Amino acid sequence: MNILQFFLYPFIIIIANVIGAISGMGGGLIIKPLLSLLGFHSLPEIVFYSSVAVLVMALSSTARQIKNGIKINARNVTFLSIGSVLGGMLGQQVLQFSFKIIGNENTGQLQAFLLIILLAGVLLLGRLNIQFNKQLNTLYFLCGLSLGTVSVFLGIGGGPFNVALLLLIFPLKIKEATTYSIVSILFSQVSNLVTTLIFSNVFAYDLNILWVIIPAAFIGGNLGALLSGKLSDRSINRLFNIVVIMIMLITLIPILF
């Protein structure tokens, strides 16, 4: 771990997790592309670091949101979480398969391409303002399954897809959707990391960097959840859209240049 990593990694992770906790995006959407741009580590290592940071953020943010008085339906969260766990396992298997079949660099390009398409879809859904307002346990399960798979495969730990899909299908307000999103991220990342530890040689990675990643993720998650309780729904919506556009631009940089 060099001096640049010591300062840049925690700075990126704190900022990303503050934004991720407020918006329900999880932080990985910012962490992964920025760490990739720095170029200090390989893509599998960056995906692993991002997953650890997002998991710590989700744990600290969820605990803080509960203290803030945010109420969630236990049954709905249970079905969402079960789907997220299975989706996280499936996403990790698809990711490892992609590494083996097309290689790290091509997998990174595929992730960037899919991410841009999905982000554009999120912005479009937000403009259309469509809501189905369904309350079915099966839908919560399928929602968690699909979101867990996509978020882990893309290495972003959730992103705006969670919030957009939750708002589209269920009768939730933005703060409720962000909380449900963080819970979904929490369980998908648990299953993701368990699967990674079983099927990947993480001990070959540079694990010393975790000494700065984990505290930074904890600080970011707590601070983000604290700020979320003070912001209005309109402010969170605005932040959500700004971050989506910003990440589209960050993701486009390595593709164009």
From TrEMBL:
Species: Lactococcus formosensis
An annotated GO cellular component: plasma membrane
Transmembrane regions: 6-31, 43-60, 72-91, 112-132, 138-170, 182-203, 209-227, 239-256
Main location: membrane
PANTHER family per UniProt: MEMBRANE TRANSPORTER PROTEIN MJ0441-RELATED (PTHR43701), MEMBRANE TRANSPORTER PROTEIN-RELATED (PTHR43701:SF5)
UniProt keywords, alphabetically: Cell membrane, Membrane, Transmembrane, Transmembrane helix
Protein name, UniProt field: Probable membrane transporter protein
Highest taxon in the source lineage: Bacteria
Database matches in InterPro entries: TM_pro_TauE-like (IPR002781), TSUP/Inactive_protease-like (IPR051598)
Family: Belongs to the 4-toluene sulfonate uptake permease (TSUP) (TC 2.A.102) family.
Subcellular location: Cell membrane; Membrane
